[in-house]
Amino acid sequence: MTAPSSLLTHIEAGVAWITLNRPEQRNALDIPALKRLHAVLESCNSDPAVRVVVLTATGRSFCAGADLAEWADAEARGALETYGWTETAHALMQRLHSLEKPTIAAINGTAVGAGMDLSLCCDLRLAAQSARFKAGYTSMAYSPDAGASWHLPRLIGSEQAKRLLFLDELWGAERALAAGLVSEVCADEQLPAAAAELASRLAQGPTFAYAQTKRLIREGAERSLAEQLQAELAAGLLCGRSEDGAEALRAATEKRAPRFVGQ
């Protein structure tokens, strides 16, 4: 019997659905899973048929973070510092964070450690009512190693980030919503539909303009206001030359809704 794939993917109406599929391991990320997800994201980024990416999971956990069995095996072999999990995870987090398409994390259960960090790399986060968030690092006597120390202060502020990281508290969906860790909470059974509705709206939008907007936000923190205004000018010129930019102007003059093609 063929073993089930650890990652399920399908593309429908411009939306790439990527589903972590190791429910018995609570969708923990071993090195093969990290590499497969990275490869799928690379494919999505270059595929014009993909205009939005949704990341979700099977089972009761979104993602339990690093695969502790793989971790323990590396330690037993004396290879904990060299077996490559952190470097492989960092490459994945950077790929997801810098993707040119909008990304949505549909968080259907507990997100721990690198699993939480995976959701933080997405542009938008929707949480099921049963979702839980836990940094997981200090309980293992570790500091963050997959982007939490960068994302959390920007999303929820420095003090809240320190509380979540220092005390390793388990935050429920409503607390995550109140803190700004997620943008929406819905009933468990409504999560797929809520993610699909949001993804559909984005898939019908100006994909090239989304990519420029993402880049401006991502790089803006390193610039002065004057530098950012120059970057906005350059991005705006590119958007104006795009097919969707021309269509938006035609639609405005013709007093109709634009029909964007994502180019």
From TrEMBL:
<dbReference type="InterPro" id="IPR018376">
    <property type="entry name" value="Enoyl-CoA_hyd/isom_CS"/>
</dbReference>
<keyword id="KW-0456">Lyase</keyword>
<dbReference type="InterPro" id="IPR029045">
    <property type="entry name" value="ClpP/crotonase-like_dom_sf"/>
</dbReference>
<dbReference type="InterPro" id="IPR014748">
    <property type="entry name" value="Enoyl-CoA_hydra_C"/>
</dbReference>
<protein>
    <submittedName>
        <fullName>Enoyl-CoA hydratase-related protein</fullName>
    </submittedName>
</protein>
<dbReference type="InterPro" id="IPR001753">
    <property type="entry name" value="Enoyl-CoA_hydra/iso"/>
</dbReference>
<comment type="similarity">
    <text>Belongs to the enoyl-CoA hydratase/isomerase family.</text>
</comment>
<dbReference type="Pfam" id="PF00378">
    <property type="entry name" value="ECH_1"/>
</dbReference>
